[in-house]
TrEMBL record:
The keyword Nuclease applies. It comes from the Bacteria. It holds the Pfam family Exo_endo_phos. This is Endonuclease/exonuclease/phosphatase family protein. The lineage of its organism: Bacteria, Pseudomonadati, Bacteroidota, Cytophagia, Cytophagales. PANTHER family: CALCOFLUOR WHITE HYPERSENSITIVE PROTEIN PRECURSOR, ENDONUCLEASE_EXONUCLEASE_PHOSPHATASE DOMAIN-CONTAINING PROTEIN. SUPFAM superfamilies: DNase I-like. GO terms for molecular function: endonuclease activity. Residues 35-258 form the Endonuclease/exonuclease/phosphatase domain. Keywords: Endonuclease, Hydrolase, Nuclease.
Length: 270
């Protein structure tokens, strides 16, 4: 949610990283548990200078999701060195602590390192880094995507953090993400800190072929809370004809100014 230094626009870029061969994620029950979490660059937002990575790792291990989308992630920054005594790639550290495969999608250069999105996946094979448009200027933004198998079905899952500064950017970024997602015939899940509420115009761009997990669960409680503001700005969206919602929960823990959102979906097979 917070601002960093203004950065010039990046050219749009999609890059591909292949980790290994495909393998079924949860072939038995056709369900997947996913979590989105803005981790505030690994620092306790209410106690400046206090680290929170160990607490987050314990929480992630307890919740045991199959895939995690992380926002506000530092990689090898001076800021991380000031917190942890050395420059740290937060995704790599959380991957080690959870036993998951990690992927960092840098959105921008920051503090002698990088800042952007992360994915943690139990069985990762295939990642894509998608840069997002910033027509109004401001901070560069990115999305991270992975392709997995549930049983015999390939699915796509993405995580992102949309612009906090300009609505024009958020609208363009939603359109870019939907353009990528709707170019696939596969089941799709995308999620993250989107920096808009259900009352905003950006939300209305997301058509009825996508389902908002919170709305389906009838739980639209706040996912972001600071001393002066709160609201529901963290989401999990899924292609409506491909999944059934099994569970939705906002986890109220004090490790960030955002709460993690945990969702369980069941793949609908013909």
């Amino acid at each position: 949610m917070k601002a960093l230094l203004p950065i010039l626009k990046n050219a749009f870029l999609i890059s591909l990283i292949i980790i290994g061969s495909f393998s079924p994620l949860m072939a038995q029950d056709q369900t997947i548990k996913i979590l989105t979490y803005n981790i505030y660059h690994g620092e306790d937002p209410f106690t400046p200078g206090k680290t929170n990575l160990d607490s987050i790792a314990i929480l992630l291990n307890e919740l045991d999701p199959d895939i995690i989308a992380l926002q506000e992630v530092d990689s090898m920054t001076v800021r991380s060195a000031n917190l942890y005594g050395r420059k740290v790639n937060l995704v790599d550290e959380l991957a080690k602590k959870t036993g998951m495969d990690g992927y960092f999608a840098k959105a921008m250069d920051y503090s002698e390192g990088g800042y952007g999105e992360g994915l943690l996946v139990k069985k990762a094979e295939y990642f894509i880094h998608q840069n997002l448009p910033i027509p109004a200027g401001g901070e560069p933004r990115a999305a991270a995507w992975t392709s997995l198998k549930i049983g015999e079905k390939n699915i796509w899952i993405g995580g992102t953090h949309l612009c906090h500064q300009f609505q024009e950017n958020r609208i363009a970024q939603v359109q870019e993400i939907l353009g990528f997602a709707e170019s696939k015939s596969n089941p799709i899940i995308w999620m993250g800190d989107l920096n808009f509420t259900p009352q905003d115009n950006e939300y209305q761009l997301i058509k009825a072929n996508w389902k908002d997990a919170a709305k389906i669960a009838k739980d639209e409680s706040s996912t972001y809370q600071s001393a002066t503001d709160e609201g529901r700005i963290d989401y999990v969206w899924f292609s409506k004809n491909h999944f059934e919602l099994i569970g939705y929960q906002v986890i109220h823990v004090p490790y960030s100014d955002h709460f993690p959102v945990l969702v369980e979906l069941k793949l609908i097979t013909p």
